[in-house]
Amino acid sequence: MAAPRWRASVLWIWGNGQGLGSLFSLVSKPFCSAAAASTSVNAQRLAERLRAQKQEQDTNKKPVSTNPVQRRVEEIVRFTRQLQRVHPNVLAKALTRGILHQDNNLVVINKPYGLPVHGGPGVQLCISDVLPILAKMLHGHKAEPLHLCHRLDKETTGVMVLAWDKDMAHQVQELFRTRQVVKKYWAITVRVPMPSAGVVDIPIVEKEAQGQQQHHKMTLSPSYRMDNGKMVKVRHSRNAQVAVTRYQVLSSTVSSALVELQPITGIKHQLRVHLSFGLDCPILGDHKYSDWNRLAPQKLSVGTLKKLGLEQSKARYIPLHLHAQQLILPALGSRKEDLNLVCKLPRFFVCSLRRLGLEMPNQDQNENNEAEHLGAQ
C-alpha cells in the first residue's frame, strides 16, 4: 500500500539538517522545484495585480488643467476638503497667521473659506473645536478657551471676532443683537443691481421648496404686492422675520458687479436671499439661492463663463464670493474709541474681480461711502 504523500514532506522537514543524504536529495529536490514554481506564479500574479491597480489609478486620475483659473478652482475644492481632515493643531496654527487684531479682551481672525463655525452632521472639524488650542498658542498652556461672539456661514470669508472670557463675549453679542455693530460685506453678483444703491426691506421666512429634492430655504415674505398697478398689503406670515439690507454697487460691467452690503438686521442667509430673490442678482458661486426650486450648480451666461475661463460643467466648484470685509465695534470696556476691523479679500475673490473686469474701489471712495452711510443713519 502506497504511503500518503504528506509523509514525505513531514520527513523532509524533520530531516532538514539531520544529514539524511539520499533521502533529503530525493524528497527535497522535487519539493523545492515545486515551491519555486509556486513562488514564481505568485510573484507574477502580484505584479499583474499591481500593474492593473496602477492602470486603474492612471485612468481615474484627472488630467491637470492648463487653464490657471480652472487650476485655482480645483485648488479651492481640495483646500475645502483638506480643512476637514487636518489636525486641530494645524488648523489653529493657520488661524494664528490670519489674526487681524488682538488685545486683552478680543482676538479677531480672518475666517477662511469652507470652514464651518459650529459642528453638525458631517462636520469633522470647525472653528469652535480649535478655540481651546488657539488660546493656548496665544496665551500659553494655562489659557482658558476663547469664545465666539458671532457667526459666519461656512462659505463666507473675512472678519470674525472672538473674546477671551464669557462676559466680554456676551457684551459683544449684545452689541450685535442691538445693531450697534457696523457690518460691511463685499460680494460679486451675477448681473447688476438696479438701482445702483438702495435699501432692501423685505421680511424673510424659511419654507420648504418643492422640487426633485425636497429641501428648506430662506425666502422673501413681502408685506405688499402689486395688484392692477396698486400696492396692496398682504397677510403677514407669523414666522417671517424683519430683514433690512443696505447696498451699493462699487464697480460693474454689463453682466456682473462688485457690491458692498450692510446688513441692518442679522437673519439667516439674509444677504444671499435679498440679492437673489429681491434684486435678481445672485452672488457668484451661490448654488443654493440661484434657483428657488432646484438644488443644482449655478447657471451662468456664456459670457461670464468665458471671462472666468470655465465650462458650465465646472460651475459647481465656484466658491461663494461673499466676504466680511469690515466690522466697526463701538467703544467697549477699557477701549474708548471705535475699533475698525478690515480684512483683505481672499485670493480667489481678487482673481475673479480681475477676470470679470471689476475694479477695486480706492480708499477715498470707501471713506466717502462710509460718510454717506453714517449720514443716512
UniProtKB/TrEMBL annotation:
A GO cellular component annotation in the UniProt record: mitochondrion
BP-aspect Gene Ontology terms? pseudouridine synthesis
Query: Key word ATP-binding present in the record?
Result: no
Question: Mind listing the GO molecular function terms for this protein?
Answer: pseudouridine synthase activity; RNA binding
| Keyword terms, alphabetized | Isomerase, Mitochondrion, Signal, Transit peptide
Q: Kindly indicate where the leader peptide sits in this chain.
A: 1-19
Q: Where in the cell is it found?
A: Mitochondrion
So what does this thing catalyse?
Answer: a uridine in tRNA = a pseudouridine in tRNA; a uridine in mRNA = a pseudouridine in mRNA; uridine in 5S rRNA = pseudouridine in 5S rRNA
Transmembrane residue ranges:
none
Among Pfam families, the record links this protein to: PseudoU_synth_2
This protein's major location comes to mitochondrion
Residues annotated as domain Pseudouridine synthase RsuA/RluA-like: 105-276
InterPro entries membership: PsdUridine_synth_cat_dom_sf, PsdUridine_synth_RluA-like_CS, PsdUridine_synth_RsuA/RluA, RluA_PseudoU_synthase
Could you describe the subunit structure of this protein? Interacts with 16S mt-rRNA, mt-tRNA(Phe) and mt-tRNA(Met). Forms a regulatory protein-RNA complex, consisting of RCC1L, NGRN, RPUSD3, RPUSD4, TRUB2, FASTKD2 and 16S mt-rRNA.
UniProt similarity note: Belongs to the pseudouridine synthase RluA family.
Q: State the protein's purpose.
A: Catalyzes uridine to pseudouridine isomerization (pseudouridylation) of different mitochondrial RNA substrates. Acts on position 1397 in 16S mitochondrial ribosomal RNA (16S mt-rRNA). This modification is required for the assembly of 16S mt-rRNA into a functional mitochondrial ribosome. As a component of a functional protein-RNA module, consisting of RCC1L, NGRN, RPUSD3, RPUSD4, TRUB2, FASTKD2 and 16S mt-rRNA, controls 16S mt-rRNA abundance and is required for intra-mitochondrial translation. Acts on position 39 in mitochondrial tRNA(Phe).
Designated name of the protein: Pseudouridylate synthase RPUSD4, mitochondrial
**Which taxonomic lineage is given here?**
Eukaryota, Metazoa, Chordata, Craniata, Vertebrata
